[in-house]
Every structure is written in structure tokens, then in C-alpha cells.
Amino acid sequence: MEAVQPTSNLTSTIEELPMDKALVSDSLSYYVVISVALLLAFFLKPSKDSHASVPFYKASRMKWMFNADSLVRDSYNKFRDQVYQIKATEGVRTLVPSKLVGELKSLPEEVLSASQAINEAMLVEYTRFTFGLHHDAVTLLMKTKLTQQLSRLVPRMKEELEFLVREEFPDCEEWTPVKIQPFLIRAISRLSGSVFVGADLGRSEQWMDTSVNFAIHVFMAVIKLQFFPTWLRPVAQYIVTDLGQINRDISKAQEMLKPIIDQRLQDAELDPSGERPDDFMQWLLDALPEEQKRDYQLQAKLHLILCAAAIHTTSNLATDCIYDLATHQEEQDIIREEAKEILEDEQGWAKKEGMGKLKKMDSFIKESQRLAGNVTSFIRKVVKPINLSDGTYLPAGTNLLAPQCGISHDERYFPDPEVFDGLRFWKMRQESAEGGNRWQLTSIGDWNINFGLGKHACPGRFFAANEIKLVLAHFLLNYDIKLKDGEQRPEPMMFMMSKTANPNAEILFKRRSII
Ligand code: HEM
Asked: Which Pfam families match (predicted)?
């Protein structure tokens, strides 16, 4: 059988990225010497960060770089409920267990800062990857316009998905191998695009290309800059060409957005009480002060950061779910039955509560996320000293993380943690009224931190959950899904704390006959 790959010209994986031309030249040996010197400086440099007086877990920084998943799980298994530290590539990181993270989640920004931690991690002075002063306005739009009455967006997104499947997904009359990860990046990009910038621009190849690759350019720029000591970065920025790519992405997005923004402002002037488009571009335009409504560059940057937060995260989890459905075929019928009953028989596609009623599917997605989700969560920087109830003192300047993958495999919270049980959270929701709310995909709690915790918890999670349910429902209702004979669930790819669903794996799809 020939492997079919859905049409895609997006540079969607790190592997496919062109080599940084600035680092490859005729005088290769010169660069090799410089690189080795920098690597040595990087690995040997003493850390100037403040850190708590808590035990260190000894492991090489290389392990953090290439195998952070097992490093965090092993260290968590050793320390469990204790605060401990790891020497990460970016400096010392202090890991706080579930038992204590609850004491931190409600602290104000002036004491424990998410934005400072993220700005430092993303090297914003070079990458410009920040909502900046617009952070609160943008996240408020996500919590209100994007999340409330999410159901009104479902028909639009469903149409978009069906359009894409018709255009780009193979027929699958027989069992057909498909590289599903690149397809799902395109699908999530289109679904999000239809809500963020409207279907016309959202469908444009140039918009998809720019909005998907922006995140990769930022990620690559951060990784490369991290190899230079802080004092050398002002110079290094001129040889890390991904930074130039970031600027070009913003310019391209600006060019694409400008005519639409101008048109919308003109329409509003001509007919102030007329109906407005219902998308993020319009909500943002309405929220911006008068003098920023024609700041095209600002809006381009905010849109690209929104896409960077939204597309890879969601397509990653959707891909993991497909890998788990293919691996646990026995669970497909259960989830399919539920989708058929609620979305088709009860016509839930068009109903407000339709997606919320897919409780077994919700549980399946959460289980996929538990086992395949991020390595850490709750990135924060201590701004004013904090005393924890176990006596741990966290001085200002301490960089915190929660050991998410350790917590997700802790048998005290999740019995038989290594077993994939798609109905695990559905069962937990049946146990009590409290459990009904606590164990939804979008719920957050001290050992439920896949979407973060506290004020900065992911504001896009309800939207992401809706998108993933829509995608899974479509595939389950229309296809049978399985692994190739003799193959195991595709392993994720790990690099520098970033965990990606395997982009190259092929999964078999066969169209179901319509009964
Ligand atoms: C499965 C998909 C997603 C996952 C796993 C995910 C995960 C996360 C996590 C772990 C955080 C950090 C929370 C914290 O530090 O407490 C976060 C923050 C954020 N996410 Fe998501 N996210 C997803 C989808 C989305 C989507 C679809 C959007 C936009 C529509 C979005 C927008 C954001 C924003 C803006 C923040 C920063 C919030 C703040 O700093 O106040 N995310 N996300």
C-alpha cells in the first residue's frame, strides 16, 4: 500500500526546517570551533539565578535537553511531595509538587509572576513574543467572546473541517495509510482561522503558512539564542536568522490583515449600527483604543501570537487522540456510539449543549493528554520571597515549574497510571457531583495541571476542547481507524521540553459504509 500524505506545503516540523544559513558557511571549521566554545561556555557556566535551599536531582543538562520527560518523571518519583531542583539548560529550575502548588496558584503577579517567567523563557527582548500591554485585553476576549456561547461557532468550524476533508483527505475506500499529524495541523489552522480571522483569510495558504510557521521560528530562535551566554546575545541576534524570519512573518501578516481592517473600519464608519463579523479580528478591533485601530503591525503580532498559542498545542493533542484511538480500537465504538447518539440522533451539532454532552469523548481526550501531555506546567518566577507550609523558603528570583508528567503518572492520583483507560475520567465524573465538574477535560486543579493553574491558566482551553471533539467526532463517525499491522503507538518526539506527537507516523483509515 502506498502511503498517502495529505497535501501540505507547510513547514510543519522542526526536522523539515531549512538549516540556518548563517551558521553554515565555507569556513565550516571556524564555526565548529566557535560552536564548541559556546557549547562549553553554555554547559560549564555557573548559574547566577537565585534558588531555594532544597535538594538537587543530579542529571546532566543533556538529559534535560533530549529526555526531559524521563528526567522529570524519575526525579518526581524520588522526591514526590518535596520541593526539589534540576539544572536545566536555561538555568536552575525549582519543581513544586501538587501538594504545595495549591499554595501558590492564587498569589498575585507582584509576588509570583507568570508573565516575567514566560518573557524570560521566550527571550522577548529578541523574539518580541509577548502580548505586552495587551495581555489582559486579549485574554479577556478569549474568556468572553471566544468561550461564552462557544456553540455558535460549531457550525462554522464543522463546515470548515468538512471542506478540508473533501479537498485534502484521501478517499480511504480501503484501509489507507495517512500521515495524520500534518493533516491535523492544517485542519486546526483552518478551524481556528475561520474563528480568528474569518474563513476567507483563514483558508489562504499564505496565512496558514505564516501563522503556523511563526511559532516554529520563535521556538528555533529561542533555542539558538539560549546557546549563547546572556552577554553575547546582543551580538548573537544578528546571526540567528530565525529572528529575521519572525519580523518577516509579522510584516507578511500585516500585509494580509491591512485591507481587511481598512474595509471593516470603513464599513463601521458608513453604517455604525450595522452587523459586524463575528471573529477575533473584529473583537480585537472593537476592543482597541481609537489610535491603535490602524496599528496594523500591532494587530499582526497579536494575531500571530494567538495562533502560536492555539494551533500546535491543539493539533498535537488531537493527533495524540487519533494515535490512542488507533491503538485502543476496542474504545472506538463506545466513543462513536456516544457521538452518533448526541450529535446525529439528537442533532447536537446545532445545539448549545451538544459538545458538552460528549462526556466519554471528553474523558478519552483527557486520558490522552494525561499520558502524552507536556513535561512541565505552571512556569512562574518568584518576585517576592515566599514561605511554603512545609518550611521551604523560595527567595526572589527562583524559577518554578510543576512536574506535570510526574504528577500524571502518580498512582495516588491516577490508579494504574500506566494503563490507558479512555473512560477513566468519565468514571471519576460519575462518582460524585463534585467529580462531575472536577474531571472534565477543561477542569484544572492541583494535580490536574495540563492547562496550567490559577489566573494564567489557559484561556483557550474551552475552544481547544471544542475543536478536538469536532475533529474526533468527524473521524469516528466516518472512518474506522487502526495501527499498521505489528506497529505500536507512535512515540512522541522530545526536544528541549517540547513534546510533539510523532509527525511522521502513518495511521490506517477506512471509510465506514453509511447504514
Ligand atoms: C490542547 C490545547 C492547549 C493546551 C494543552 C494549552 C496549554 C496551555 C498552558 C499549560 C498554558 C500555561 C498556563 C499557566 O501557566 O498556568 C497556556 C496558556 C495560554 N494559552 Fe493555551 N493551551 C491550549 C490551547 C490554547 C488555545 C486554543 C488558545 C487560544 C485560543 C490558547 C491560548 C493561551 C494563552 C493566551 C495563554 C496565556 C495565558 C496567560 O498568560 O494569562 N491555548 N496554555
From this structure: p450 (PF00067)
Ligand 1 atom 39: residue of nearest CA: 456
Q: Which CATH architecture has domain 21-46+128-374+411-446+450-511?
A: Orthogonal Bundle (1.10)
Q: Report the b/e string of 116-135 with b at 16+ CB within 10 A.
A: bbbbbbbbbebbbbbbeebb
CA distance 355 to 348: 7
pLDDT at position 515: 53
Pull the grid cell for residue 41: 561556555
The per-residue pLDDT for range 208-265, each reduced to its tens digit, is 999 999 999 999 999 999 889 999 999 999 999 999 999 999 999 999 999 999 999 9
Q: Which atom of ligand 1 is nearest to the CA of 305?
A: 35
- What residue ranges do the domains of the chain occupy? 21-46+128-374+411-446+450-511, 51-127+379-410
Residue nearest to atom 16 of ligand 1 (CA): 452
Directed axis angle between helix 280-287 and helix 296-327, to 10°? Answer: 140
Residue nearest to atom 2 of ligand 1 (CA): 314
User: Quick check: 342 and 394 in contact, CB under 8 A?
Assistant: no
Confidence at residue 89, expressed as pLDDT on a 0 to 100 scale: 82
Place of cell 509577548: 130
CA distances from 339 to 108, 332, 353, 472 (A): 41, 11, 13, 9
Tell me if 313 sits within 8 A of 464, measured CB to CB: yes
Q: Supply φ then ψ for residue 171, to 5 degrees.
A: -60, -40
What's residue 351's pLDDT? Answer: 79
Cα–Cα nearest to 367, from 318, 402, 333, 321 = 321
End-to-end Cα distance, the chain? 27
CB 279 within 8 A of CB 196: yes
ipTM of the complex: 0.99
Question: Which residues, judged by CB distance below 6 Å to any ligand atom, belong to the binding site of ligand 1?
Answer: 114, 139, 142, 306, 309-310, 313-314, 317, 377-379, 450-454, 456-461, 463-464
**Cell digits for 59?**
542529571
At residue 194, the 3 state secondary structure works out as helix
**Residue 500: closest CA among 72, 169, 12:** 12
pLDDT of residue 514: 66
Q: What is the DSSP string of 95-145?
A: E--HHHHTTTTT--TTTEEHHHHHHHHTTHHHH----GGGHHHHHHHIIII
Mutate which of 150, 304, 313 to test ligand 1's pocket (most atoms within 8 Å of Cβ)?
A: 313
Q: Is 458 annotated as a binding residue?
A: yes
Q: What is the pLDDT of residue 15?
A: 33
